[in-house]
Records
---
Amino acid sequence: MARLASGRTTALTAAEIIDVALRQVDEGGLDKLTMGNIAAELNVSQMALYRHFDSKGHLLRGVLDRVWSEGNQLSEIPSDPVELMVASALAMWSAFARHPQIGVMLGATPEPTPQSMTQAALIEKVMIAAGFDPDHLDRAYMPIATYILGSIALLGSRVAARGAMVRVSPEDAREYILSAEITGGRDVLLAMIPDIDEAEASFERGLRALIGGLLADQSARVEQTG
């Protein structure tokens, strides 16, 4: 049996490492995350971390999978397939809104795991049930996925940029825009810095419009060829 580090009463687990890594990213960003900082907080050696994750990249994949798993949890499963698509996307958006800086990693090439293949098959099934052409699912999936993942990545990029560049808080900026004498464009300026509730509502409106537009475009193409 492996000897426990001084001050620890339980063996180190992968889940415990991910817990600390996720919190450190939330608080300091991806650039501040190091195996040394994680090891120090857990009161273990860096070698102990590498027994669970062979690299920082491997650990970040585990962190991303954790947030992705959070986003796959639905309290209720809508029976309507379009509503299921919207509810699933909102759950994913909300999970990454809680951990915005993790969202920037969604641009990485997905790994072909059994879990991702199972999820892809489920997405395909729901999209077909929603009315999308099974022979041309890519025409709908790519715009929808780009919208969802791009919106999530935007959350992270805003947080990262705020720490590096912005000298005024979003709250102060909104207050200034609301109180300043502006001849036009106030709504546009406010839309650039929404609060979290407004951002979520805007995301849902855009997604519903996109899905509806794609289905309408598909119907129009069918009529033209028919």
---
Amino acid sequence: MGDGLYNFFKVLSRTLAALFFQLQRSDATGALPIADRSSPKTSRISYDEQRRTQLFLIDQIPTWFAVAGYVTIAAISTTTVPHIFPELKWYYILVIYIFAPALAFCNAYGCGLTDWSLASTYGTLAIFVIGAWAGASHGGVLAGLAACGVVMNIVSTASDLSQDFKTGYLTLSSPQSMSVSQLIGTAMGCMISPCVFWFFLRPSRIWGLLEVNTLLLMLLYFETWLYWG
């Protein structure tokens, strides 16, 4: 816990310091020249950077679409997750989704500065907060672990998307096209992952002839991954 809090406050302090200096620099750049003070020096932006910024902002995602998507996902999670984990009440998830955008922004901005995602640290904080809120007598351990998974998914997705959009900015890719690709990949994962889990959950037949244990399939997959990896 001590190491996680140290890393959390370290990256948070660097993020806040970078935001402060960036806002201070923008204020200095936007100042008007007066008699007692020389004109502020403005940095010249190259043509490539101007072109990247222009193309990236033209095809940006509408704000209403992002907000509507987040509210929809929050509503679905608030409704369905308590049925999977009864100890994690619906108001716990609602509070998580209210504070999650601030945590996601801090993690994405800090990951851009340090190339280091603190999603696990934010998840650890959720374990302590939600677990203490629920209490040991009401399944606080399971509620904290489930809340950790929810927070880590939100925060890590934000940092991953920011890195993907950074790559798209450098390669002159369309943000909308990248968002559609992310949605397609997420939908495929929602269908493929349960099928893989169901396949390894019970003994399966290979080519309809031999029934093998799940452990043997896992060992075979692991050995194949080591050989080709």
---
Amino acid sequence: MITERQFDFAKKLLERRFFEVTNKIEDAEAGIVDIHARSTRKGDKRTLLLRIVEDTATVVGVEILRSCIKARDEGGFAQAILIGGERYTYAARREAKLKDIELLHRRFLSIDLFMHELVPEHTIIAEDEVKELEAKYGILRMQLPKIKAGDPAAKAIGARPGDVVQIIRRSETAGTHKVYRICVP
């Protein structure tokens, strides 16, 4: 999931001290693990906070969400993802949307969607590539076919409404075939 979002915490980054796994939560019983990662894109210095709630609780409330927001803000992270139990309370979902925290269920991690042979490669393309695409084909961004933000592949790569997703499919006749989609809510 992290590598599909173009972040990395691989061994080579571990050697450079870009990777940290810490238990920095006031309540040691909470079973919360923070994972820090950096962007793999050239010139991109964004960082990601991935907070995993290992507690057996099935409902994640606003208190755990607020601790994630605090950790993101204090650590200077550009993005944060909270992975928790079976469901989130209404208040937690509402506040996460306002504070730009992505919420994922623990079971989302158990399946690597892109390992299946029928699922093509999905990537979010940079803004300058979108401009080139618009100029090359003489189209506007909103004229592209759409992909829902709730699509499992879009969720896995972290696509948000307005992002343009490049999908590279294998083809017996053409070898590879690139298609583009605009992410919509």
